[in-house]
């Protein structure tokens, strides 16, 4: 099928199912968002229409689309203003690792469970006191017969409260150099030995969790890429995480910008030259995302590697979101600080951006690390 025909199919399907669609949200789904019945029905419709896991081979329920074809579909959903949700980290992070490093038996067993929603994964990489140095992790894995017994502590686990599985990086050979001796293990969270504790955030919700793991077991069949080969598998996951939605994320940031513009217009705040200047600067950064996404699409279409653009893009969108959150509140004056009425700790969309955006300088690779990547790999500067 040509890309034009694929776009036409997507447009026709969206038009036929628009009444059931979930409207597109802002640039990021809130950390503490819990899918409701509307979300679940829309996800079922997308699953039935085969609009999930688009790049997977057809035997596992995908469409075997190329990266440029996936970009085309994402653009059609974004232009229509409706969500094309992913199956969380299950689809975007662990599935690429299974497809690249899993055995045929693992792919046949694990991928259908992801597509059906039976398995929902969270990421067990970050640990207390290790910062961004993943190779310093201290969670241990001991092979006992046909199982791996895991003991350790993971933290900053997005959506851990909604998951029944975790892809864990643990040290299975303590005598090996620090980048070696690691294993990538799929660990059930509903068994003995795992205590999942939600972490309350500044927004009032519990989008992150920490896990205390005390002798929890996973079958050896759940080790992806083989024992002590976890670093290579983890790099596949991190590459998928950093790629994100570089080619279509512009639409979400543009929706947020337009929403702020509308609010400021209704408040009569656009006459302030300082506000207008700050809005212009924010708009330029949104356009930079669009340009970087197009460059990445062109690079991928030509069969190239867009890794350098990912580091540039990560810094651009995360720094923009921090600045945009501050701008949204500052430009509104005192009104920006007033929380919506109602029970509980309510915040509006712009207050949420301001509070949540700070952590995005750390997510998907800290901005300090990204700047080193740009300096060394793009500009050719010495280490």
TrEMBL record:
The answer on whether this UniProt entry bears the keyword Flavoprotein reads yes
User: What family does this chain come from, according to its entry?
Assistant: Belongs to the acyl-CoA dehydrogenase family.
The segment(s) forming the Acyl-CoA dehydrogenase/oxidase C-terminal domain are: 228-379
Cofactor(s), names only, from the UniProt record: FAD
What name does the UniProt record give this protein? Acyl-CoA dehydrogenase family protein
- Provide the organism lineage as a comma list: Bacteria, Bacillati, Actinomycetota, Actinomycetes, Streptosporangiales
By its UniProt entry, which SUPFAM superfamilies does this protein fall under?
Answer: Acyl-CoA dehydrogenase C-terminal domain-like, Acyl-CoA dehydrogenase NM domain-like
Identify the InterPro entries for this entry. Acyl-CoA_Oxase/DH_mid-dom (IPR006091), Acyl-CoA_Oxase/DH_mid-dom_sf (IPR046373), AcylCo_DH-like_C (IPR036250), AcylCo_DH/oxidase_C (IPR009075), AcylCoA_DH/ox_N (IPR013786), AcylCoA_DH/ox_N_sf (IPR037069), AcylCoA_DH/oxidase_NM_dom_sf (IPR009100), Mycobact_Acyl-CoA_DH (IPR052161)
In which organism is this protein found? Actinomadura yumaensis
A Pfam match: Acyl-CoA_dh_M
Q: Which PANTHER family match?
A: ACYL-COA DEHYDROGENASE, ACYL-COA DEHYDROGENASE FADE29
Q: Which UniProt keywords apply?
A: FAD, Flavoprotein, Oxidoreductase
Q: Where is the Acyl-CoA oxidase/dehydrogenase middle domain?
A: 122-206
Question: Which residue intervals define the domain Acyl-CoA dehydrogenase/oxidase N-terminal in the entry?
Answer: 6-117
Q: Does the keyword Flavoprotein apply?
A: yes
Q: Which domain of life is it from?
A: Bacteria
